[in-house]
Each structure stands twice: as structure tokens, then as C-alpha cells.
């Protein structure tokens, strides 16, 4: 079992598995925007403004064991397909559901922006979406990474060596969801039905381009 808590410990979520399906460093605007917004909400400084975000991907089999009311969902950029779960008690960033790239069987965990216990170690598969890093940060963020690197994401690249086969294999994995565990989609639907999406009114980017703000949807 993998135990994931928010930074303050009010929210606790368990995943049935301990072995990440794969691990990516994502440099996309959307991943950076949620951290920028979360920092703003809680009065923290977010520096550097753009960075590669370390992410592990787990089988979609989880349950909330504590603090369910704190896990809320946000669409941080206009038209995004990433549904992001944040803990509103301390503005940790925990989960991403992305049906277009990951499909329904995989949940992304923001390992550096919440607390993760019990997972097996996993090598980084690739660093992706480098196209979103501003030119003046490229050197600091992208060039130090020695593994497989991709400027573009899967929407732009028909063949995404090293990454697509890994994701496809993980998507086709059959697994049994143990009693008491469920799907992230059920958790999202329950939360959004009760609390709605997080609204972003009042957010400004503090002059750190190029974060694009979503509307209230
Ligand atoms: Zn990303
Ligand atoms: Zn918290």
C-alpha cells in the first residue's frame, strides 16, 4: 500500500499498489500553473517559477481514509484535460487525472508537493513537454537531464519513443481493485457534485509569465 498525505496531514489517501507504473518529469504549463496557484493561495513563494515536476503514476485503485472534505478539484488552465486534486487545508498538490493521455487506469501523483510513503523506487522514464519552459529558463531546467527528453507531448508527436509504449502497457494492465478501494473518477465526481470545481477568481500570476489563467469553469 502507498500512503499519501497532504503537507499538514489532514488529508490521507491510500493506494492499493506500491509499484509505480512509470515516472516522468513534466515541464508543462499546466503542472507549473497549479503549483503557482497553490503557492499564491497559501502565501508561499514559488521559486523557480518554472521547473520540471517529478511525477509517479500508480494504478487507479485508491481510497480516502481521512479528511475527504479537504480534497478538491481544479481545472487550472483554459480547456485543460487535467483534473487536479489539491488539499485545501494546506494547498498541497496531490493528484492528476488525465483521460486523454493516461486513460482511466492510471493516476498521477505530484510526489514533491505532498507526502508519499511506501512506494518502490522508480527510475525516471523521460522528461516531457519541454516546449512549455520559457526560453530563459530552458538551460536551468531542461539541459541538466540526461535521460529521454521530449520537447512536445503526445498530442503533437505521432510516435513518442520510450514514453508511449510505457503508457500503453500500463493502460492495458489488468488489475483487480481490492475491497474498499475505488476509482479516482468516483472521488472526483463525488467532490465536484458536493463542492463544485475550485473557482479561480481573484488569482493573478504575480507577473510571472506565461501562466494562463482559467475562467471559473
Ligand atoms: Zn505536466
Ligand atoms: Zn493539508
Q: Give me the CATH fold name.
A: glutathione-dependent formaldehyde- activating enzyme (gfa)
Can you list the ligands bound to this structure? zinc ion
How many domains make up the 3D coordinates? Answer: 1
Please tell me the CATH architecture by its name: Alpha-Beta Complex
User: In what order do the strands lie side by side in the largest sheet?
Assistant: 6-7-8-9-4-3-11
Could you name the CATH class?
Answer: Alpha Beta
Provide the CATH superfamily: glutathione-dependent formaldehyde- activating enzyme (gfa)
Q: State which percent range the strand residues make up.
A: 15-25%
Query: Average pLDDT, to the nearest integer?
Result: 87
Globally, the shape reads globular
Based on DSSP secondary structure assignment, what is the total number of beta strands? 11
Report on the biggest sheet: 7 strands, mixed
Would you give an account of this structure?
By secondary structure, this protein is of the alpha+beta class. It is 18% helix and 24% strand. The strands form two sheets. A seven-stranded mixed sheet has the order 6-7-8-9-4-3-11, sandwiched between helices. The chain has a four-stranded antiparallel sheet with strand order 5-2-1-10, with no helix packed on it. A hairpin with an 8-residue loop joins strand 8 and strand 9 (106-110). The radius of gyration is 17 Å and the shape is globular. Residues 206-217 have low confidence and may be disordered. Bound molecules: zinc ion (2 copies).
Amino acid at each position: 500500500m502507498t500512503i499519501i498525505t497532504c503537507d499538514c496531514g489532514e488529508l490521507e489517501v491510500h493506494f492499493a499498489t506500491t509499484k509505480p507504473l512509470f515516472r516522468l518529469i513534466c515541464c508543462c504549463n499546466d503542472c507549473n500553473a497549479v503549483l503557482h496557484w497553490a503557492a499564491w493561495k497559501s502565501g508561499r513563494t514559488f521559486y523557480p517559477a518554472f521547473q520540471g515536476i517529478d511525477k509517479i503514476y500508480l494504478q487507479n485503485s485508491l481510497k480516502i481514509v481521512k479528511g475527504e472534505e479537504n480534497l478538491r478539484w481544479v481545472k487550472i488552465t483554459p480547456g485543460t484535460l487535467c483534473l487536479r486534486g489539491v488539499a485545501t487545508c494546506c494547498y498541497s498538490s496531490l493528484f492528476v487525472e488525465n483521460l486523454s493521455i493516461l486513460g482511466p487506469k492510471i493516476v498521477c501523483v505530484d510526489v514533491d508537493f505532498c507526502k508519499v510513503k511506501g512506494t518502490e523506487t522508480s527510475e525516471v522514464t523521460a522528461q516531457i513537454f519541454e516546449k512549455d519552459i520559457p526560453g530563459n529558463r530552458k538551460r536551468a531546467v531542461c539541459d541538466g537531464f540526461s535521460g529521454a527528453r521530449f520537447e512536445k507531448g503526445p498530442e503533437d508527436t505521432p510516435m513518442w519513443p520510450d514514453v508511449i509504449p510505457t503508457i500503453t502497457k500500463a493502460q492495458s494492465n489488468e488489475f483487480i481493485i481490492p475491497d474498499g478501494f475505488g476509482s479516482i473518477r468516483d472521488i472526483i465526481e463525488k467532490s465536484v457534485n458536493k463542492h463544485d470545481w475550485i473557482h479561480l477568481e481573484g488569482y493573478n500570476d504575480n507577473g510571472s509569465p506565461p501562466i494562463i489563467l482559467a475562467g471559473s469553469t
